[in-house]
């Protein structure tokens, strides 16, 4: 267990023309493009951890499996391939827009120092693994992608605020954003980083950390305030090496106020998106774990129906959607395949 943070939250005021929230991969690229479009803008990139090390791409990647490069594949081929692979459940206009922008983006990344594999003549060395086109472009130094993006941010003088979490976006009478509120030191990013998607109970948001600590925040005001009394989910037998939350949507709540957390017995550094095989139920009133629910397979997202006798909805990694009785944990039925890849977010009625 880590020691609680000292000093409490600190509020700063920063004025800017464009605020980009999230320093993974999309956030830095959005900030870069905004500054390139208009260098006179003051652009702020806000990240809850550290931009240099945030996002899945910071863990490294060995290639692009969706590179649409002239001479190897056409956008039309790519749209057809993706449509077939996802049983027709795709937004074809969006996929086409991606395919048409793929090659210009690869060229841009190449220009700022991202290394792609090339052949003896200097052409991109694209590999064929799909049925129709050839889309796989190896990256021999994929672990340097974030470094290249970070250098570009600094070169363009984008203001970077690390270790800040956005808590509230304030809007005017017309519904447009007029300002945002941020709080520093909202969590201990080194030892207890929080998952970004909470479980909401009214104006209270319950977050879980990568190590299983539950922390509530009161959002009844302009700035979220940490509730006193964070607590641990605890541990159990059968872990290798330890139980940790894992998945994309890992925490949910029922109408009675209990919290449900998706847990993996294979918790380790970097496993927070791997999914889990159990759901642990905790009561924030008593700050204790009250039960464990075994799932039928690895799941990546959970949700609870909003009814007197709630049901636990589980999105499994194989695409199946399971329904469990939330009170007993018993498996009720399967809703079948979701179509294509498994959902990473669930909205239950």
How far do the termini sit from each other?
A: 36 Å
Beta content: 25-35%
Assigned CATH architecture of the largest domain? 7 Propeller
The low-confidence runs, each spanning 5 or more residues with pLDDT under 50, are 1-6
Shape: globular
- The number of domains is 3
What gyration radius follows from the Cα positions, in whole Å?
A: 22 Å
Count of helical regions? 4
Describe the structure.
The protein has 349 residues and is of the alpha+beta class. It folds into three domains: 1-55 and 144-189, FAD/NAD(P)-binding domain (3-Layer(bba) Sandwich); 63-138, no CATH class; 192-337, YVTN repeat-like/Quinoprotein amine dehydrogenase (Methylamine Dehydrogenase, Chain H, 7 Propeller). It is 15% helix and 32% strand. The protein contains four helices and 20 strands. The protein has helices at residues 26-37, 75-85, 92-111, 145-155, and strands at residues 18-21, 43-47, 63-64, 137-138, 159-162, 164-171, 177-184, 199-201, 204-208, 213-218, 225-226, 231-232, 242-245, 251-253, 259-267, 276-283, 288-304, 311-316, 320-325, 331-337. The strands form five sheets. Strands 13, 14, 15, 16, 17, 18, 19 and 20 form an eight-stranded antiparallel beta sheet that branches. Strands 8, 9, 10, 11 and 12 form a five-stranded antiparallel beta sheet that branches. Strands 1-2-5 form a three-stranded parallel beta sheet, with helices on one face. A hairpin with a 5-residue loop joins β19 and β20 (331-337). The longest helix has 20 residues, at 92-111. The chain is globular and about 65 Å long. The two termini are 36 Å apart. Mean pLDDT is 87; it is low at 1-6.
